Amino acid sequence: MVDDKAKYTDWSQRADIKAELKVDLIILLAENGYPPVDRDEVYKEIFEQAENFKKYRDS
Length: 59
What we know:
By secondary structure, the chain is mainly alpha-helical. Helix content is about 65%, strand content about 0%.
């Protein structure tokens, strides 16, 4: 999912792509019962991990 959304070179600068990624991650997490308690900090950490995954994997 991250690779699909991050296929554009400027993906980390585009709010529309980042918003789509966040929504897709929230849906995926909800389908799998995570996090057990909704907290914004959990989602923020997951979004940062997804962005770092793509940024540093391609370096």
